[in-house]
Amino acid sequence: MRVNGTKSVKHVLTVIRGQRNGGSRRGVAMDDRILDVQDLRVVFQTDFGKRTVTDDISFHVDRNEMLGVVGESGCGKSVTSMAVMGLLPKNGNAEKGRIIFEGRDLLKLKPRELDQIRGKDLTMVFQDALAGLNPVFTVGNQLTEQIRAHEHISRAEAEKRGTEILGRMGIPDPAQAMKKYPHEMSGGMRQRVMIAMALACGPELMIADEPTTALDVTIQAQIMQVIRKARQELHMSVLLITHDIGLVAQNADRVMVMYAGQIIEEAPVRALFSRPMHPYTQALLAAAPGIDDSEDRRLASIRGTVPQQYDEIRGCRFRDRCPYATEACGEPQAFRELDAQHFVRCWRAGDTTVMSDRVTAG
Amino acid sequence: MTEKQEVKGQEPPEGKPASQSKEKQQPLLSVRGLRRLYKEESPKLFARPGYVHAVDGIDFDIWPGETFGLVGESGCGKSTTGRLIAGIEEPTEGTVFYRGKDLYRMSREEKKSIRTQIQMIFQDSYASLNPRKRIYDILSEPMLYHKIADREHVAARIDELLEMVGLPENAKRRYPNEFSGGQRQRIAIAKALSLNPSLIICDEPVSALDMSIQAQILNLMKDLQDELGVSYLFIAHGLGAVHYISHRISVMYLGKIVETGPGRGVFSHPAHPYTKALISAVPIADPSKPNDPNAIPSGEVPSAVNLPQGCRFASRCPFAEDKCRQTEPELKLIASAGQDGKGLTEHLAACFYAAGEL
Question: How large is the ipTM?
């Protein structure tokens, strides 16, 4: 696999990927689902016994798609991504369900088989780039190691590719940056390095878990631009996990809203923002202060807090905080399709005449 | 604060110290030429250490009953400003007048009494609440120390405070770790209010909270202000929250205020290129209104040790010209919606381009 230094990274990566996928496989699988999670349940062993952290999680990511996952802290969005990556802590376990990545169930793979996929076809960017990078090795060292772990190329070639990718990520003077240690870089630059590592082997799916949460808003805008560009050039899919509904609105194709360990709504991004159907989604959108709000707008706040022991709740987990709750909400809620591709876990959700304004009026 | 003032004699802003009749016409707090430098942490072995210009000469007034928002990215000096006013740190230069009195030149006794009137709320309320004490003790101690309430009345006062911030009465018998982040922030607010302050410095009070809880706290703070007439210095990096709660907003960049004015004016008609960049970088929560990808500012904030000559934003500014790189622009009036003698309607920006001088 000779890499011509003058060619762009985009070209390099597509060539690499073409060879790896053998062209035809990619052609056939073009409109396939890259990731298909089916009925996933993650449990944790805690001091207080077994706790079901996420339950009934089914979703898919199409090729070339960005799926946004939003929810507040503790809703299970990060646990879901950790389960996909096989990075659950020791006391956590994907007890039930399947995680199909490119036709293979990740939960059934041996560790060695998983290692061949992770870091290459399936990669992840974390919020805390400083924790994700090894402080005693240079950026270049870690980047080339990552490339050479998956591809049989010489150190010099790997270094050349690493430098090119860093440059692509908008790092000024990438050759110099390769020689730096993580602590010598700013937070934004470190996050670019993390993304470069995630992209280095031309992944099919990149999971970005709060990739910009620790960054300033102007740097966040730059990083998201880098991710958008990489996505276009590499035709990869992105699973964007965030608590920032603005970030999802601006970047995702489809959105999934999570609450207390369940997916409660899923829809194409425009549909979700123009016609949110679950009372929680409605409240979440109304609770975000915008910079173009009128002066007399009052933020809608959701009363109460997220239930702690939510796995013991039989019915709707939002019931205690919901302004529309009735007796029937005590029953388990089905995740049903109300509109084309618009799924909601709320039996009252179709009843929009009753439900449209009250939450937003706060 | 019409112009950057060089404070040498440290004159109180309204001439003489407060007399009762002047009370209404006097700002609660006047910051004049405030500057705080820190010695560089790890200079090269034999090099002379440089200085980090955390806050580099800022002026503003806060009026009674007003919320003054301070926004900017990390390292711009907004938190240092809050800590200087709260008395946690001392300025290198410049000063702060509280009702006409110099905060850093007063007797111990005076200081003690004035410090009750300026309270602070932090981002991490867990760190500011003693984990070994019950809420009752956390709330009663400052009131007893400052003799705001005596032992007999303190219990009733605590019930009243808890009700004000929307916590159940039995909260006083519990420990901080038994509460969620939002509830702890309510306790921190109750603690700040317990001494009847006229100014509360809020340093990123809602940044660590989830969106729905953030809305609860912001609404609570607004309601308390309507009820008690307390002023807030609201320091945050989240533009949405600052816009929601503030009457006036100042935008800081590298230790300087680059734009200041009424909240609506600054955010709907930003004059300074940095404010514009900041606003256009906030992702809009509406997929049908895409952010302008061309408005994303390039580069990063330069070092606060070796400050550039001229305008501090010039290296990232799309409009910068030679003049900007040579001379540092001062705050100039951009727009004003009438005269009120307090400058509350004045919109100022420190930019040659915005002032039409390029």
Answer: 0.84
